[in-house]
Each structure stands twice: as C-alpha cells, then as structure tokens.
Amino acid sequence: MPMTSETPTRHDQHGLYPEAGTVEDLRRNLATVQERIASACQRVGRDPASVRLLPVSKTKPQASLRLAYAAGCRLLGENKVQEAFGKWESMQDLADLRWSVIGHLQTNKARLVARFASEFQALDSLRVAEALDRHLQAEGRSLDVFVQVNTSGEASKYGLNPEDVPGFIQQLPVFSALRVRGLMTLALFSAEAERVRRCFILLRELRDQLQQSAPAGMELDALSMGMSGDFEIAIEEGATVVRVGQAIFGARPLPDSYYWPTRSDPQTPESVTD
Ligand SMILES: *Cc1c(COP(=O)(O)O)cnc(C)c1O
Questions:
Q1: N-terminal to C-terminal alpha carbon distance within the chain
Q2: Which of 43, 52, 63, 174 has a CA-to-CA distance to 127 between 20 and 30 Å?
Q3: pTM of the model
Q4: By residue range, what is the domain housing residue 108?
C-alpha cells in the first residue's frame, strides 16, 4: 500500500515563492514542479504523462508570459477574462500560444472567451453554456470545457453543488460547440491536508459516478484539481490537470481575495469579479 495519507499541503509557502525574472528561473521552476508531479505519481503508481501541468499566469505581466513561452509553455491559464483577452490580443505574434480560462465567467463576457480561449474550466451554469455555444457557433470555433464543482461546501466558492452536477451534465449535449472534458474544483484552502484531500476524493468519486451515466459521446475523464499548495495531494487522488501559478511564476502581489472574489460579496464591483 503506498503511503500517501501523510503528504502535507504546501500552503505555508503561499505568497513566498520568489519572482521568476528570467527564462532560466522559469525553466528551473517548471522542472521542479514536474519533479514534484513525478514523485506524487510514483507514490500511487501513476504515469506522470497522465498529468498535464497548466501554468497559471494571472496578474503576471506580458514579459513574464513571454519568458514562460520561451521556456516551452504553449498553454497558459488566466482567471479573469478581460485580462486574458488583453494578453491574447497583445501576444498575437506567438501564434501557437493557447489560453485556458479558469475563473468564473459572467454571461456578458462569453463572447470574448469564444473568440480566443481554447479551454474553459469554470462552467457552472446553463446560461453561460448557452451564451458560449452561441458565440462559438458564430465564430466557427469549439471549446474544451470543465464543469466547476464546489467540493468544499464553502458558500463563497463558485461551482455547482455536487448533487446538481449529474442533472447539469445531461443538459450539455445540445451545446455542440462545447466539448465537455471533465470536472474542475478548488479545494478548501487549509493546512489540514486531510480536509483538502476530501475535496479531491469527492471530485474523483463524482467523476467516476458520472462516467456511468454520461451522455453518449461525452468522455468526462479529466479532473482538474490542485494548485501550488496542494497539487501533490490532488495527483494522489487522480488529478489529470494541475493548475500551478506561484510555484512557476512567483508570488502574486495582491491577496487571493482579489482573484477569488466571493460570489456573495456585495462590495465586489463587477469589474473586479471578472
Ligand atoms: C490562481 C489560480 C490557481 C493557481 O494558484 P497558485 O496558488 O498560484 O498555484 C489555480 N486555479 C485557479 C482557479 C486559480 O484562480
């Protein structure tokens, strides 16, 4: 039996990762993260090739993204649509650089996502699915999507409640420009590894259950879970995509409440929530 129950979170590093200012820094950080991915895989007998590393470049300036590109990154994750769209527009010269939008989307921004993104990981309503599909059809494009699930039970987190996901999935096949790949979650942000792990187990079990009843042609094998502070635990529980920002690019200058605004916070202006 592999011993995984003791893998700690690394949330104690949060906000402390040094800024990556050169292509060598980025190469080294990417290599370190890949090594951590490989050892987590080894603990549970998984092939490291079954885990995709999605570097998350949110808040970082274009210059850092260009260094990441030089270091070999071809898909970058961003959680705010407007910011991602601006970066895409100004980096058109890097024709093979693709974009994954990993944050909550308001219906009125679906048109932007349909224009430039190749992946959207935070689908959580039929309204957004409908808007994305309509704009994608108009653009003659399609999009890989993940359904975001709230596995922590925190009222502040986006995502569908686990019990609502099966019914939601059944309604997605009509949106033919959306290729539903799997599920995404943000775990509880806690140093208590067992509570974090429980979120990941919940997502995997939900995916396994959904695979039994998934609409024809929908594969639903992807599990996007884990970030700088907890991706090893996520991999031990079956993550196929890990979204890693700080451990690659360095700490962000603003507190996380800025990037993960709570959906119930009336103080948060629209321009900040998206
Ligand atoms: C910022 C972000 C991440 C990455 O977090 P890090 O702590 O920088 O690794 C992962 N997922 C989502 C949805 C994010 O917004």
A1: 44
A2: 52
A3: 0.92
A4: 19-250
Pocket of ligand 1 (CB under 6 A): 56, 58, 79, 102-103, 186, 227-229, 243-247, 259
Per the document, the length of the chain is 274
For residue 134, give the CATH number of its domain.
3.20.20.10
User: Average of pLDDT values for 50-67?
Assistant: 97
Closest among 124, 183, 119, 200 to 157, alpha carbons compared: 124
Most distant CA pair in the chain, distance: 52
| 43-53 per-position pLDDT tens digit | 999 999 999 99
pLDDT given for residue 153 in this prediction? 93
Residues in CB range of 159: below 8 A, 6 or more apart: 122, 124, 148, 149, 150, 151, 184, 185, 186
Nearest-5° angle of CA 5, CA 55, CA 106? 100
The alpha helices in 4-147, defined as continuous H runs, are 23-44, 62-70, 81-90, 110-116, 126-139
Residue 259 lies in a domain: no
